[in-house]
Inverse folding.
């Protein structure tokens, strides 16, 4: 039977496997929510300055900028040699879960107070452990969905990530009331369960792995395309910087110029809207095409970026927050499929890692200027956000295209 006939006989999306991947995405988002909520408090408990939190986040993102594509590329090698990425994913999950729960235990137990440098070191080690498995795990999306259905599969990841992200603004008091040990233990436990479910639903490694058939690739994509990787990186920079700029703009407008502004409610609405619209946005991307859907979403986000400065009421802010979340669904659903579409199947981990690398670079840059953006006129962060979104749209629209038959890896049973 021909490969094309085999593919036609299989579902275009392996939903059980995609759901396992979505649980990992949700666990990652939840752990970062908990980390950001407690970071300053943990540092001050051991006598360190609050300002160190910004420096740590910048450093962690700089390290992630290098580690994400490195770990993704390493997982590509494992996939070709062993037929599976899971040894690296499992190692990263165990390290991340272990170091995460160790952070509050060290503080509460007084170990960190005895040597104040121990806590920042543990925080950086945890962030590094997170980079070990994220790109390898997310690149599996290309094995669990095919061709134009990739954004629809990714919508499940966006939905779960949006729900987890909403806990930051909407459930912060409840999370903080549990105390750091309980909260961090919850994050570690959710990650371990998610990884177990992902492994349980994953196909067994086989000698006849489809990723090893690299000679079946078109000649133009038989190796690594540096311009294509640059487009993936640039899209990661633009999407992340645009999102961060919009979140800052909403926070500033609600604090500075909206009477009785409610930043937690409005920012929480962004993530709720992101989750609610994720699946419809995935279906729309299948109809429009992933790139067209992403560019449309970026254009709407640029409009929101320009319009938010004029908001004077909570109602208008909530309306724009819903528009923000819905438009970002179109973008978020398409990011990993876009990255996978620009690299050969055996380099899926590298492609995914390059997008996350761009996002880490943008987060690091944003962290260094965020304090200044809090005091500058609103027009400047708005302009920065629009420029970032235009950069992302340009990278997505101008990136080279691969034949549809090679957009993702063949499905596995």
């Amino acid at each position: 039977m021909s490969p094309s006939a085999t593919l036609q006989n299989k579902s275009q999306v392996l939903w059980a496997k995609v759901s396992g991947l979505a649980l990992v995405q949700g666990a990652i988002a939840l752990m970062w929510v908990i980390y950001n909520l407690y970071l300053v408090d943990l540092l001050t408990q051991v006598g360190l300055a609050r300002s160190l939190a910004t420096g740590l986040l910048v450093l962690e993102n700089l390290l992630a900028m290098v580690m994400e594509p490195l770990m993704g590329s390493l997982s590509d090698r494992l996939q070709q040699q062993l037929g599976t990425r899971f040894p690296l994913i499992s190692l990263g999950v165990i390290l991340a879960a272990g170091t995460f729960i160790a952070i509050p235990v060290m503080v509460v137990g007084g170990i960190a107070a005895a040597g104040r440098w121990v806590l920042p070191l543990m925080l950086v080690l945890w962030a590094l452990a997170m980079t070990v498995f994220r790109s390898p795990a997310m690149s599996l999306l290309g094995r669990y969905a095919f061709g134009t259905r990739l954004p629809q599969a990714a919508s499940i990841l966006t939905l779960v990530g949006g729900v987890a992200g909403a806990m930051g603004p909407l459930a912060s008091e409840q999370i903080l009331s549990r105390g750091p040990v309980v909260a961090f233990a919850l994050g570690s436990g959710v990650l371990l369960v998610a990884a177990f479910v992902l492994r349980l639903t994953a196909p067994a490694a086989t000698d006849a792995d489809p990723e090893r058939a690299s000679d079946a690739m078109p000649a133009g994509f038989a190796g690594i395309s540096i311009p294509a990787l640059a487009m993936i990186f640039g899209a990661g920079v633009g999407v992340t910087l645009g999102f961060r700029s919009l979140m800052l703009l909403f926070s500033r407008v609600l604090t500075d110029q909206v009477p009785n502004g409610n930043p937690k409610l409005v920012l929480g609405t962004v993530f709720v809207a992101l989750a609610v619209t994720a699946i419809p946005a995935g279906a729309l991307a299948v109809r429009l095409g992933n790139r067209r859907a992403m560019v449309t979403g970026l254009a709407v986000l640029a409009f929101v970026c320009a319009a938010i400065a004029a908001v004077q009421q909570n109602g208008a802010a909530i309306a724009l927050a819903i528009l923000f979340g819905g438009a970002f669904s179109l973008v978020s659903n398409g990011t990993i499929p876009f990255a996978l579409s620009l690299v050969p199947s055996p380099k899926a981990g590298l492609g995914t890692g390059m997008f996350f690398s761009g996002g880490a670079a943008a987060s690091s840059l944003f962290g260094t200027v965020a304090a200044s953006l809090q005091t500058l006129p609103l027009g400047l962060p708005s302009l920065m956000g629009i420029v970032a979104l235009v950069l992302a749209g340009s990278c997505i629209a101008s990136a080279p295209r691969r034949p549809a038959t090679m957009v993702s890896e063949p499905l596995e049973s």
